[in-house]
Design goal:
It is a single chain. With about 180 residues, the protein is an all-alpha fold. The protein has 6 helices and 2 strands. β1 and β2 form a beta hairpin. α2 packs across α5, α3 packs antiparallel against α4 and α3 crosses α6. The longest helix is centred in the last third of the chain and has 24 residues.
Length: about 180
């Protein structure tokens, strides 16, 4: 005859331990803890992180904002008449390009608003596209078919980009922990 286990613990698992790399026997080296790719580091506060990780993240964010502008909008932003002497104008800017640029900038604004200071979120996200737009307008001094002067148009669009970035970054800051 076989003996039976009467304690009732035979088929149960220990559910008190969460499955983490340390509990599974895997050791993470210290370099992995400091890596910017580590998922735990992707949403930590940037002012409290090490300087190298902080500035690499900020430079990557500014580079992504500049790359989004360069990929979504053409370099020459001037309006052109459809045919010589016509009153109708055509713009080289597409609705899809503006939409992709806006979504990218708002996502970056939410990310940097959550992780960093509001002023730096404004400078990192809205600064590179506004600067590139200014140089694009300045590199084509010939008049275009627009009614408004191009520096006024640049100022208006820079103001709209900055306002949107600040609004989204400020809203994202509401979701930070109270300890941060």
């Amino acid at each position: 005859m076989s003996r039976r286990n009467t304690s009732g613990n035979m088929g149960r698992r220990n559910t008190g331990l969460r499955m983490s790399p340390r509990n599974m026997g895997l050791r993470m080296n210290p370099r992995h803890e400091l890596s910017p790719i580590n998922p735990r580091n992707l949403l930590t506060s940037l002012p409290g992180s090490p300087p190298l990780r902080r500035w690499v993240t900020r430079v990557l964010g500014a580079g992504l904002a500049a790359a989004a502008y360069l990929l979504c909008l053409p370099w020459d932003l001037r309006n052109r008449p459809e045919t010589p002497g016509a009153l109708n104008e055509t713009s080289p800017v597409t609705a899809l390009g503006v939409t992709v640029l806006a979504v990218t900038m708002l996502a970056l604004a939410a990310y940097f608003g959550f992780r960093d200071r509001l002023v730096l979120a404004l400078l990192l996200v809205a600064g590179p596209p506004a600067t590139l737009m200014y140089f694009s307008i300045d590199s084509h001094p010939e008049p275009d078919a627009a009614i408004f002067p191009l520096p006024l148009v640049w100022g208006l669009f820079a103001l709209v980009m900055g306002t949107g970035v600040l609004a989204v970054a400020g809203f994202a800051r509401l979701f930070r922990d109270s300890e941060a």
